[in-house]
Amino acid sequence: MQSPLTLKLSAFVALSETDLQTLERYHRRRRIFQANHELIHEGQKNHSAFILAEGWACSFKVLPDGERQIVDFQLPGDFLGLRSILFRTADHSTEAVTRIEASEVLATDIFDSFAEAPRLATAVLWAASRDEAMVVEHLVNLGRRSAEERMAHFLLELGARLKLVGIGNKTGFDCPLTQYHLADVLGLSAVHVNRVLRQMREQGLVTFQKGRVTFDDFAGLVRLADFDTDYLDQDGPLLR
Amino acid sequence: MQSPLTLKLSAFVALSETDLQTLERYHRRRRIFQANHELIHEGQKNHSAFILAEGWACSFKVLPDGERQIVDFQLPGDFLGLRSILFRTADHSTEAVTRIEASEVLATDIFDSFAEAPRLATAVLWAASRDEAMVVEHLVNLGRRSAEERMAHFLLELGARLKLVGIGNKTGFDCPLTQYHLADVLGLSAVHVNRVLRQMREQGLVTFQKGRVTFDDFAGLVRLADFDTDYLDQDGPLLR
């Protein structure tokens, strides 16, 4: 069975035997963390990155007044803290949302793999670029979209990302996030999140109940959010 | 004389002769564009990327209602549209703010250079990660910082980035941006931008007049914005 990371990178590049063997070595140090464990702390030096195999994580920054801005959630196949192992100092924190399984990756693992399998370097740069494209969409959410548009865009994005790694489909997905997670990523209060979700359920667009997001009107949500999957670039493989 | 890109990447990695020669080849196709020329259009396929040598550019997304969210400004040494040449479709637009000089780079230039100089792959991944870290800070600006904190953080960031490529210093920098640019990147109205800049000038923090940003109280601005250059990771070289 292919790892979620392999599934994801395959959307960009047809991986060769060498690429796959090199990728395999990213998965030597398997770790398990409980929910809420902080894997990477902002300001930390010499930490590792991780590749998520199971469960959900989130990356965030805490402000001097204690407020938190969630930058993104990480799903199976995503890197945790990849950006930060290239930097001297981690520029953000990452914690487990659920119990997670993840492989620990050192900066040297990444550098060595690039020398052995340059196509993999391109694939990792693609994955990092895709992460950046998502942060850009979250920026547009905060800067220019209404609360309902933000919610629709964010839930559609999660659905599309999960579908790529074989979890979830057009009808919906299992979702461990709380109203506080949604508030901290969408720049809303928890009360506002509740009201927006209730309105969208009453309009027959989407239902988020009992840990499951159900797309009641997928096309309607796409229209509301002006959602276009181009920035996820997952209609795979481009590079053969 | 070193190109701004070489100066920038040298903050991360001590470039070898091979790395430098490979980098040199990114600069074969030099182009000149007038101010306001759109180099990359959102939704465009098969376009090129560019490396900025002189002048300022900006990347942005336009929403269905015509509103614009500026994601970032690009300065000498920065890639324009690097993310998008890895994708099938450009996920954002890029235009010249001033007259610019830039080298056109194709996806194959990038892929070939990674095969020849794997350390360069790491350096380009670092540069892309740094771009992402800046977008994250702009996200935090919109989500969690006051108008004054946003302005202070943004101007300090521009100053630090320009200093890295040998333009500007702790006293300030020449800045071609209008109040509309500032409004579109900071999520404020142009009127609000003017008011905030006036207040900050009267408080003796910063003056933006006649195309020049002057840091009147650098330490005070850093305190106001809680500005920490760690996310720019430019105290290099880390990788020798």
UniProtKB/TrEMBL annotation, chains A, B:
<dbReference type="InterPro" id="IPR036390">
    <property type="entry name" value="WH_DNA-bd_sf"/>
</dbReference>
<dbReference type="Pfam" id="PF13545">
    <property type="entry name" value="HTH_Crp_2"/>
</dbReference>
<feature type="domain" description="Cyclic nucleotide-binding">
    <location>
        <begin position="11"/>
        <end position="109"/>
    </location>
</feature>
<keyword id="KW-0805">Transcription regulation</keyword>
<dbReference type="InterPro" id="IPR012318">
    <property type="entry name" value="HTH_CRP"/>
</dbReference>
<dbReference type="InterPro" id="IPR014710">
    <property type="entry name" value="RmlC-like_jellyroll"/>
</dbReference>
<dbReference type="InterPro" id="IPR018490">
    <property type="entry name" value="cNMP-bd_dom_sf"/>
</dbReference>
<protein>
    <submittedName>
        <fullName>cAMP-binding domain of CRP or a regulatory subunit of cAMP-dependent protein kinases</fullName>
    </submittedName>
</protein>
<keyword id="KW-0804">Transcription</keyword>
<feature type="domain" description="HTH crp-type">
    <location>
        <begin position="145"/>
        <end position="219"/>
    </location>
</feature>
<dbReference type="Pfam" id="PF00027">
    <property type="entry name" value="cNMP_binding"/>
</dbReference>
<keyword id="KW-0238">DNA-binding</keyword>
<dbReference type="InterPro" id="IPR036388">
    <property type="entry name" value="WH-like_DNA-bd_sf"/>
</dbReference>
<dbReference type="InterPro" id="IPR000595">
    <property type="entry name" value="cNMP-bd_dom"/>
</dbReference>
